[in-house]
Amino acid sequence: GQQLNQSPQSMFIQEGEDVSMNCTSSSIFNTWLWYKQDPGEGPVLLIALYKAGELTSNGRLTAQFGITRKDSFLNISASIPSDVGIYFCAGMEGAQKLVFGQGTRLTINP
Amino acid sequence: NAGVTQTPKFQVLKTGQSMTLQCAQDMNHEYMSWYRQDPGMGLRLIHYSVGAGITDQGEVPNGYNVSRSTTEDFPLRLLSAAPSQTSVYFCASRYKMLDSQETQYFGPGTRLLVL
Asked: What residues 5-34 of chain A have any CB closer than 8 A to a CB of chain B?
């Protein structure tokens, strides 16, 4: 099946720093999604992207749908302690099937 | 709205036992899915449904059965549990709005240990 490569696998940063992570695929997706998962909970949708080249923001979060439709990027500006968690990218196949990346674990030192 | 609910939260099974993981949503979403999450592997799709009476296999369907008799409920059945099915299971429901805005909600998860 489809594989998404998400990087980096983990990040250790200082509070206030900006964060960047990305996902690449060997195949094209029509929709890219970014989720955040807190310990012991299910993923929560952060941003959804529908068009190649689209740049969408949600507060301090900005995500982009790559022009080739095979990649996506998520940036977090001015990180705060509540940003800690695992971030997942996901590409949608057809109308329902989501393929997830392996996740990026974000740790923030105060 | 309660959103997506899953029961039980935790379960320990012996190899060969059967059980059903329950999932319910009260948002009238057409699409529902089951995922399993293993360390370092993200979430993998087990089965999904695009409406009552319609189900299909995902990436890792072996060892699991599903049914969708109502819009609200989407149970996942393990017929003969194996240690390889030790995982965290998430149910999700989804509704795509007319202007293409995505809405998908995950339940809190069921942690399953098979001994």
From this structure: 6, 9, 31, 33
